[in-house]
Design brief:
104 residues; alpha+beta; 6-stranded antiparallel sheet; 2 helices; 6 strands; globular
Length: 104
Amino acid sequence: MAETRTVRLKVDGWSNTRFGRIESNLIAFEVMWLGCACPTCFARLDAVMNRMKESDVKWQVREVPIPEREGIPSTILMVEPKEMPERVDSYLSDLLGLQIKEVA
């Protein structure tokens, strides 16, 4: 079984980095921190969900507390790729139509 790995992801045009998590056959991508919940974040969530509705990948959206976010939940996109990609940032970029890069 593959190791669980947390990554930080920078989305072009989004001011804050997002957390991602890779575990076994799932990729989790933080779309929105509920501590912010501004109209811009809700628009991003809508855009991501609309994009996923057109995809043939199994997915769901959940609210999950992220320790680095003071325990306030984030809205997380959970994706189950047909096979785990080598690069999660490239996979999410293609899937969501965004420019996403993994950052240190």
